[in-house]
Amino acid sequence: FLENQIEVSHIPNGLYYVRSIIQTDAVSYPAEFLFEMTDQTVEPLVIVAKKADTVTTKVKLIKVDQDHNRLEGVGFKLVSVARDGSEKEVPLIGEYRYSSSGQVGRTLYTDKNGEIVVTNLPLGTYRFKEVEPLAGYTVTTMDTDVQLVDHQLVTITVVNQKLPRGNVDFMKVDGRTNTSLQGAMFKVMKEENGHYTPVLQNG
């Protein structure tokens, strides 16, 4: 094997089928042809590759709440998914563009329109993993899969449920007369990982 050249010798006469795969970051396409080998075949077989037009992929994720309001600042990781289910982080450059030499492990954030747009991905299956949801929202689906089978825009929508806010009324009473006491002070604490922090003070 030499650069841009394959040499095969001592093959029997006959009809042969050759198929090659040309692969780039943006597109994969095959080249195939037939040729006949005879005793008179002495000239090298030359295949001319014609430069193809640049083709790219684009996937758009839209993040909304249950009322279809767009959510800004939600963080996702993007991984490729192999046939055996294994995951591999996708290398990206710039504004979320695939490149084999790009940075892996980046967190992708929805913009002011609640969107993440990733371009130039090779065809295949990908998974958006929500890693930084907004406070006050519950994540209904942590992982969202998308399959790229051609070079068309693919759009997916991911919904988070906004948590309802509750109201609590407090009353302090006299232990003997069971009458309410005016001027009582309360401090509301929130438990997080075994620690309590004040979130509301009412008096």
TrEMBL record:
Q: Where is the SpaA-like prealbumin fold domain?
A: 58-162
Q: What InterPro entries is this protein classified in? A: Ig-like_fold, SpaA_PFL_dom_1
Record keywords: Magnesium included?
no
For whether the record's keyword set contains Secreted, the answer is yes
Identify the keywords attached in UniProt to this record, alphabetized. Secreted, Signal
Gene3D superfamilies, sorted: 2.60.40.4180, Immunoglobulins (2.60.40.10)
Question: In which family does this protein belong, per the annotation?
Answer: Belongs to the serine-aspartate repeat-containing protein (SDr) family.
The protein's name in its UniProt record: Pili-surface protein
Task: Output the lineage of the source organism.
Answer: Bacteria, Bacillati, Bacillota, Bacilli, Lactobacillales
